[in-house]
Specification:
single chain; alpha+beta; Jelly Rolls; 8-stranded mixed beta sheet; 4-stranded antiparallel beta sheet; 10 helices; globular; DIOX_N; Iron_ascorbate_oxido_reductase; Clavaminate synthase-like protein; IPNS-like_sf
């Protein structure tokens, strides 16, 4: 049963856009079929097809009520309404790749001529497994038991089934991925409240995108529905950018770098970006609720050699192995990527966007239309 918590203010979602956008055609995985050999076999093939073809998909019937989701949005809203000086007490050492706690807006220069900076705020809450301190401001501190229950439910009700289905699809033991994603073991999973504050139409005209094309660094990212359209994905097959439509009663899920490395690229890490919302939604802020799943810190991100599927299909090396460079652990990978991501920078600095973050891995520019700039070292 959900843990009782203090009363939270209600969260009212904005209306969906009425613009006719070029929506991605994403499939929906129905977890009500999970739990029988026949259902799991069907869902496993459904999952691997979705991962290989699109990388993003919806999940429904995951046994977490909309009321519980709404309470988390309300909690995120109340957090962001705190005075800035209070939120700034919870900023970690961002320049060295730390990320649990508060990341303030304004660290990235978007337009050098006008001095326009980003307006993205992040609050990350790590696992509740004894490996991480939990020093939070009110109202998070007052609702911490409920936050923990919600985070653990995401792990047991969504991530564990997805990891079982992925193992079945790769003809591995069913517990292969759950064994390297145990909640009680140290890993850099986190629940996130994320706020994109609005820009004026004139400011939006100065930007290519709010967040340029990128991939996530972990296993799966879970994104709860919120109606402000801004998320776009790059189709694996055509390379076209498509909008992701908010869909009632679902989670949006995408595959990330760790799964790509572990499968030698058979599961692709999905390229996505956050762009300017349609005109009928540009006057509102965009609040996000997400969960980032990652393997245990000590897991080495080498290509799985035990999968008959990967062997048959020829996916036996990832970028590190192919280049002869050391294969990082998940901890090494996480902090290298986070240090790169959190560095204060000019957002579209070409040198930063193509930096080598570990021997054998160079970042890439994923947007054909990004106006990169040369910044002197």
């Amino acid at each position: 049963m959900p843990v009782p918590a203090p009363e939270l203010g209600s969260y009212k979602f904005v209306e969906e856009t009425k613009e006719n956008l070029d929506w991605a055609e994403l499939v929906t995985l129905d977890l009500s079929k999970y739990g029988t050999p026949e259902g799991n076999k069907e869902l496993a093939q459904f999952l691997i097809k979705a991962l290989r073809e699109k990388g993003f998909f919806y999940v429904k019937n995951f046994n977490i009520s909309q009321d519980r989701v709404n309470r988390q949005f309300s909690l995120g809203k109340e957090f962001y309404e705190l005075p800035l000086e209070e939120k700034l007490k919870y900023v970690p050492d961002l320049d060295n790749g730390k990320f649990n706690g508060y990341t303030p807006a304004g660290r990235y220069l978007i337009d050098s001529t006008s001095g326009l900076r980003d307006r993205t705020e992040i609050y990350n809450i790590p696992k509740f497994n004894g490996h991480f301190p939990h020093n939070h401001p009110s109202p998070v501190k007052e609702s911490l038991a409920e936050v923990e229950e919600f985070a653990r439910s995401l792990h047991s009700e969504v991530l564990d089934p997805l990891h079982v289905l992925l193992a079945i699809a790769l003809e591995l033991p069913e517990d292969y991925f759950t064994n390297i994603h145990k909640y009680e073991v140290k890993s850099e999973d986190h629940l996130r409240y994320m706020k994109y504050s609005r820009y004026s139409p004139e400011e939006n005209a100065k930007m290519t995108h709010w967040v340029p094309g990128h991939t996530d660094l972990g296993s799966f990212t879970l994104l709860f529905r919120q109606p402000v359209a801004a998320l776009q994905i790059k189709d694996h097959t055509t390379g076209e950018w498509k909008w992701v439509k908010p869909q009632d009663g679902t989670l949006t899920v995408n595959a990330c770098d760790a799964l790509s490395l572990l499968t030698g690229g058979y599961v692709k890490s999905t390229i996505h970006r956050v762009t300017t919302p349609p005109k009928d939604q540009q006057h509102v802020d965009r609040l996000g609720l997400l969960y980032f799943s990652r393997p245990h810190n000590d897991v080495k991100l080498a290509t799985i050699q035990d999968s008959p599927v990967l062997q048959r299909e020829g996916y036996t090396q990832n970028e590190f192995e192919a280049s002869g460079n050391p294969v990082p652990t998940m901890e090494e990978w996480t902090f290298a990527k986070q240090k790169w991501q959190r560095t204060q920078k000019v957002f579209f600095d070409k040198n930063h966007l193509t930096a080598t973050i570990l021997p054998g891995f160079k970042e890439k520019i994923y947007d054909d239309d990004v106006r990169t700039v040369e910044v002197a070292a």
